[in-house]
Design goal:
This protein is mainly α. Helices cover 57% and strands 5% of the residues. The chain is built from 8 helices and 3 strands; from the N terminus they run βαβαααααβαα. It has helices spanning 18-45, 63-85, 101-121, 140-157, 164-182, 203-222, 243-264, 281-302, and strands at 3-7, 57-60, 228-232. The protein has a 3-stranded antiparallel sheet with strand order 1-3-2. The radius of gyration is 19 Å and the shape is globular. 40% of the residues are buried.
Length: 303
C-alpha cells in the first residue's frame, strides 16, 4: 500500500476564526521558504551541494504534525548552532493538548534567530525575502510538506547529521507513550519482549517499518472516527532515505501517539528522553519492532 494515514489532533483550537488560522499558516510557510533559501546559501558557503528530493507528498495534515516537525527543525538547527557557534538553546517545554499556531511559530522563530547568528558570525549575506506567487490556499499540509523539506535540508548542512542513535531515542519516547496507552488494559503487557535482532538493516528498512506502524495507528484512530492526515509515498526514492528522514518519520509517530495519549488520558505523562549511545539501523529496526508489537496489542484491544 503506497498511501497511509494517521490521526489528527481533535483538541479545541485557540483561534479567532478561519481567516486568522490561515494567516498563521501562510506566515509560517513563508518563514520556512526563506529558511530554505538561506540554508541553500549556507550550503554553498560550506562547499556542499543541496540534498536530492525524497518524494513524499502530503495530502492532508493538521497542526499536531506541523508542531512536531517544527520541533524536529528546532533540534537540528540547535545542533548546527552548537557545531558552528558553540551556542545551544534550551528546548521549549512541549505544548499541551490545546496546541495553537503560536506554539509552532515560536519554534520557527528560534530556528530563524540561530540561523541569523550563524550568518552574522561568518559574514554571509542572507537571501532576500521571497516574493512568492499567489497561491489559492495555504494549508497545514502545504506547511508540513515544506517543513519536511526544510528538515531534510538542515540535516544535510550538519557536520554531525541526525543518526540512528537520534532515531532510537525518539522511538524510545514512542515506546513510553505506547506503554502508557496499554496501561488502560491491565491484562496486556505494557512493554513486551523485543523482537529478534536482525543484522545489516538500512535506514530504508526502519522507514518502512515506521510506515507500517503509522498504518496500525490509523486503524486504531478509525475506531474512534477520528480525522486523519495522509501522505503519498508512491514517488519516494528509497535510495535517498537517510537517518535524518527516518528521524522525521519517528517524530510523526510520536505526534500521533501523543494525540492518542491525550485523547484517552486526562493527564499527559511524558516519557523521559535520553541519549542511548551509539546505535546502528539494525538496533533502531529492533526498537521499532518493539513499538510495533505494542501498537498491535493496542489495536487488538480496540477491536
Amino acid at each position: 500500500m503506497l498511501l497511509f494515514s494517521f490521526e489528527l489532533n481533535a483538541a479545541p483550537e485557540k483561534t479567532t476564526g478561519i481567516e486568522t488560522e490561515l494567516s498563521d499558516v501562510k506566515n509560517i510557510y513563508f518563514k520556512t521558504v526563506n529558511l530554505d533559501a538561506n540554508l541553500a546559501i549556507l550550503l554553498h558557503a560550506m562547499g556542499k551541494s543541496p540534498p536530492p528530493t525524497l518524494g513524499v507528498v502530503v495530502l492532508a495534515a493538521d497542526k499536531r504534525q506541523v508542531y512536531y516537525e517544527s520541533l524536529s527543525l528546532f533540534r537540528k538547527v540547535n545542533r548546527l548552532s552548537f557545531e558552528l557557534l558553540r551556542i545551544k538553546r534550551q528546548e521549549p517545554e512541549l505544548s499541551g493538548a490545546n496546541l495553537v499556531w503560536s506554539d509552532i511559530n515560536y519554534l520557527i522563530e528560534h530556528a530563524e534567530s540561530l540561523i541569523d547568528a550563524i550568518f552574522k558570525k561568518f559574514d554571509i549575506a542572507k537571501a532576500k525575502q521571497s516574493q512568492l506567487e499567489h497561491k489559492q490556499s495555504f494549508s497545514p499540509q502545504l506547511l508540513l510538506a515544506s517543513l519536511l523539506n526544510t528538515n531534510r535540508f538542515i540535516n544535510h548542512v550538519l557536520e554531525r547529521p541526525f543518526s540512528p542513535s537520534d532515531v532510537y531515542q525518539e522511538l524510545t519516547v514512542a515506546v513510553g507513550y505506547a506503554a502508557n496507552l496499554l496501561s488502560r488494559h491491565p491484562n496486556v503487557s505494557r512493554i513486551p519482549d523485543s523482537p529478534e535482532f536482525e543484522k545489516n538493516k538500512k535506514p530504508v528498512d526502519v522507514f518502512m517499518r515506521l510506515y507500517s506502524i503509522l498504518d496500525d495507528i490509523d486503524a486504531i484512530a478509525k475506531t474512534e472516527n477520528l480525522q486523519m492526515v495522509k501522505l503519498d509515498i508512491s514517488q519516494i526514492k528509497t535510495e535517498n532515505i537517510l537517518p535524518g528522514d527516518v528521524y522525521d518519520m519517528a517524530q510523526l509517530v510520536v505526534s500521533e501517539l501523543v494525540f492518542l495519549h491525550d485523547y484517552y488520558n486526562s493527564q499527559r505523562i511524558i516519557p523521559p528522553r535520553f541519549y542511548p549511545g551509539a546505535k546502528f539501523p539494525a538496533h533502531v529496526y529492533q526498537r521499532a519492532g518493539l513499538l510495533q508489537k505494542q501498537i498491535e496489542s493496542l489495536r487488538k484491544q480496540m477491536n
